[in-house]
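User: Good morning. I'm curious how uridine-diphosphate-N-acetylglucosamine would be positioned relative to this chain. Could you predict the structure with it bound?
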Amino acid sequence: MSTALSSTEAYSLLSLSLAAVGVLLNTFTGEGEPLIASIAFSCLAFSSCYALIRWLGNAFIRRGFKGKDLCKLKQTEIPETMGAVCAMVYLFTIITFIPWPFYKDIVVATSGGGNRDVIKELEEVETGRLLHRFPHNKLASYLSAILSLQTIVLLGIGDDLFDIRWRHKVFIPAVAAIPMLIVYFVDFGVTQMVVPIPLRPYLGELFDLGWLYYAYMALLSIFSSNSINILAGINGIEVAQSLVIAVLIVANDVLYLSPFTAYPHPATDSHLFSLYLLLPFIGVSLALLKHNWFPAKVFVGDTYCYFAGMVFAVDGILGHFSKTLILLLLPQGFNFIYSAPQLFHIVPCPRHRLPHFNARTGLLECSRVEFKKPLARPVAEGLKVLHRLRLLDVETDENGQVVSSSNFTLINLWLVWFGPMREDRLALGLLAFQTAVGVAGLLVRHRMALLVFTADNWY
Ligand code: UD1
Ligand code: MG
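Assistant: Good morning! Here's the predicted structure, ligand included:
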């Protein structure tokens, strides 16, 4: 891989970074302007990540972080685990950002310039409009988000180094989620769920899920980090699907922020919090996508997939919109359920399920799993039913025995439906699908919610 930045790239990244630094310095003259600062930080994160991916590529290869691109004629080795670079730049960014959202509170609480002469003011403050205590709970949320994300990055790098077994690594996101769940418990602690109208006669208006709510949130972190990792295998798909999800969450956040809605909305703060976590994520992901899109120059590694999933889980849980998040993860959910027969070894699961590259046509076809041993009768019948529903491509021999089928992933199913195609067209198709489902999900969330709930909290 050519590691040097071209002069156009170098100048563009440099000017972007300088502009971002200028904006950051400027925020100190006002009240800190955290949202503007966050955008500037995200631009800085983008340029640093872009340059570091280039500069570190060869070092990663030397350390053995490399992989063969299986869907190419010439299977050259390219750097893998570039998600680790993204994650590091991201963590550095959100850690450096910490003072900005609290700038106003710090300045007011210390009356500026670090003087702690607030005691006198407190009397007027107690009765007056300036009752201003430092929001320790918000800082705790933010710090717990960082802690959870750091833990998941450790898992990801461990997995890329040692290929941890599926049954072991599946629980690690739940451990990583503990810091944020504790903060949720102390700070918010709402474990009640608003019951949809049709169910109210049975359950009442609010239903308390109690500790099950925490189990649900832990499961959500397990699900979102693993589900991105298994909707993978073609150039660009891991990063691009994460970007689509991130951009849709940002769109949803913006709905809650002025000037689109009455300010201050009760949810304003949690949606701002969500933006602070997502904008830098979009920055580093764009830099990665540039290098991972077809034909890929680097692979993202499991680190990226876990990290991206955890960013969404942390964001959704601490931003209090976990149900909306599930709507945006529907394609991943489908892929997860559809994969279940292979994940739980009801049918054999090969090490790789990515599509098959046909060297003659240069197109991708669905990859297949051969059943060396005959399948149990009910399983075989089940596969035939799926075949008739066009949800699988099953091959039978003259005796009607099932001998092979397409692998159980959404990517292969797409190829079963639309026939062989080039790798980038396949990725674009899947991304269009992800976007369409996500937009529909948000529409349902905000328009149809009124049919099953009495109020949509946007208004
Ligand atoms: C998951 C999937 C596996 C899929 C793999 C591809 C499950 C249970 N596991 O495994 O079926 O094959 O992701 O990422 O669904 N690669 C490419 N082109 C790409 C991306 C990856 O050829 O665009 C290959 C490279 O050889 C790379 C390897 O996949 O080295 C990475 O696989 P890894 O992420 O370790 O696989 P898993 O996450 O364990
Ligand atoms: Mg992977």
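The first strand starts at residue 66 and ends at 68. The radius of gyration is 24 Å.
Let me know if you'd like a different ligand tried.
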